[in-house]
Design a protein that fits this description.
It holds the Pfam family NfeD. It is a single chain. The chain has 145 residues and is an alpha+beta fold. It has 2 domains: 73 residues, no CATH class; 57 residues, Nucleic acid-binding proteins (OB fold (Dihydrolipoamide Acetyltransferase, E2P)). It is 43% helix and 21% strand. The protein has 3 helices and 5 strands; from the N terminus they run H-H-H-E-E-E-E-E. A 5-stranded mixed barrel has the order 1-2-3-5-4. Strand 2 and strand 3 form a beta hairpin. It is elongated.
Length: 145
């Protein structure tokens, strides 16, 4: 198999994985893999050149877009849709116990969730914070502190 095809498959996998996460890091790596595809088409036998071109592109995107995204998030009127989950009501789909995450449904979306208390299936919960992809919940009507 040609290197450009391998890099293209890597880029596709990274883009699909990116769609499943809430960050941009895999997007930058996917774009780096596309740069490696271009390098492979120019230099088919230069695997080190391809990897170096892709790595430099991914690193540059990561370094130079971080301040831009930070500035965008701090801009007036910006609202992070994920942060809006905090305070919303949900329902336990899969039981949660301390140390064992479960599944909650908030709106139409299902999330992994943790709690410091035992929550059984069909319990009503409130989202009290959000990690990268895991919500922290408490029983609805519990203390907000």
């Amino acid at each position: 198999m040609e290197w450009w095809a391998i890099w293209l498959i890597v880029a596709g996998v990274l883009f699909i994985a990116e769609m499943l996460t809430l960050t941009f890091y895999l997007l930058w790596l996917g774009i780096g893999a596309l740069i490696a595809v271009a390098a492979a088409l120019i230099s088919p036998d230069g695997i080190y050149i391809q990897a170096l071109a892709g790595g430099i592109a991914a690193l540059a995107l990561t370094v130079f877009t971080k301040p831009l995204t930070r500035r965008f998030r701090q801009s007036r009127g910006y609202r992070d849709a994920i942060e809006e989950l905090v305070g919303k009501q949900g329902i336990v789909v899969e039981s949660i116990s301390p140390g064992n995450p479960g599944i909650v449904k908030v709106g139409s979306e299902s999330w992994s969730a943790t709690s410091i208390e035992l929550l059984l299936k069909d319990d009503q919960v409130r989202v009290i914070s959000r990690g990268t992809t895991v919500l922290e919940v408490q029983k609805w009507g519990g203390s907000t502190e």
